[in-house]
Amino acid sequence: MRRPVVAGQFYRKDQEGLSYQLKDYFDVSVPKEESVKGAVVPHAGYVYSGQVAAHVYAALPSAETYVLLGPNHHAIGSTIALSREMWSTPLGNVGVDEEIVDDLSESMDVDETAHQYEHSIEVQLPFLQYRFKDFKIVPVCMGLQDEETAKEVGIILANALKDRDIIVLASSDFTHYESDKVARENDNLVIEAILELDTSKFYSRIHERYISVCGHGPIAVVMETTKALGAEKGKLLKYATSGDVTGDRSSVVGYAGIVTV
User: pTM of the predicted model, to two decimals?
Assistant: First the structure.
């Protein structure tokens, strides 16, 4: 059992409190996007990024399985790591899609240590649990996030997920600890590349401007995988920075909610 490690820090640790917290974030008017293949969602504390994430989850259709890709902030375990364990949150337990994990394990390691302390996938689960019932997950933690690796993982996933009822989610925040003005300028550049599903432009702009998108590998994988599965473009549903919550515009983190369709 993979137990929560940031409950009580990033989100409420009690079931009632967490449900109330999520209900507040889902008080948004977002049309459902039935053709969604994938999405990009933030993974900060809910008080900062919860409403941006809710814009994405409110738009998602139900699926049998959600493939969740997150960066490995702690650099522990395998560089591309699957999890086979059941995941627990204050809202209950979520099982993995063992059939897909078995297929992917021919090309990726199953390594629970990479997931043990990593929050980027964990924080997505309560949103899914609030919206949907009877779904499974495939957690993938990425320590390697270069363009070549992302494209390789995208091919592997696309081959394994073809003809399955899945949605692929990338967990990432955008610019870290720049002024609100700089964060918005930088993030607009990389968001433009994501909306075009142009992975090479995405990496080029990150490298040119040293833009601190912590989950750039997972985002690139979502672009590559969903293009192979029929996505033609991305749609920005919501953008915000931590300064919108704190009022401090001098040093912010950027958050984008994007779907690929």
Answer: 0.98
